[in-house]
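FYI - complex with thymidine-5'-phosphate, inputs then prediction.
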Amino acid sequence: MREKLYEGKAKIIYSTADPAIIVAHFKNDATAFNAQKKGTIAEKGVVNATISARLFALLEHTCIATHYIDQIAPNELRLRKLRMILLEVVVRNIVAGSLVKRTGLASGTLLDEPLIEFYYKDDSLGDPLLNDDHVLSVLKLVTAEQLAELRRLALQINQLLKDFYLRCGISLVDFKLEFGFDGADQIQLGDELSPDNCRLWNLEDGRILDKDRFRFDLGSVDAAYQEVLQRVESAT
Ligand code: TMP
């Protein structure tokens, strides 16, 4: 009855009897650096599906529209099908990762205001950074009004997730969001909210609890994912 619609690096998407609803099956496979590095993280599918479910529910509770419907298996979510916007929206609170390379600022520098960046979602180009003119006039990915809404939503989501992770004893350094349009052309938050697309640093000692442990071979990858899951579960 269900048919595989698409297989990505971290998820398989299945159809359901309702054309407006899909199932996302979260895999244990992990990739980094545009899939140049490949591996698996034990139980990652369960961890990422469960953390995503909890965080989508938290956002929905605060009236942020997301594609989330429910968790139907430890590693599967039912989601509303969206027409995805080809942008990766990155929000940063603390300097890390590619922002270190782009600015020369020290990793760990606190930003005065959250920084929002838009990247073009295109693996063949390596997801390049775009400015507003690239987004609006050249690629025409969204309208100016929609871009303003993406910024507003990204900042609102950042505030909610930052506060939530603080309650978990975790600093939300940065994260990536993807949005899409629902059947009524309203913007909804899509994709996932997991340690795969966030940087999460332990408040107490700065210990890295996210996919950077896999990217840079820091060890204890599975344990870090489990630790985030446990803290998220006890705070929701
Ligand atoms: P960056 O510092 O490498 O640009 O990453 C910024 C944030 O975006 C970080 O939380 C990791 C996340 N991210 C993804 O989710 N997918 C990606 O392909 C990349 C490069 C980053």
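The pocket of thymidine-5'-phosphate is lined by residues 90, 96-99, 127, 174-176, 197-199 (CB under 6 Å). The chain has a mean pLDDT of 98.
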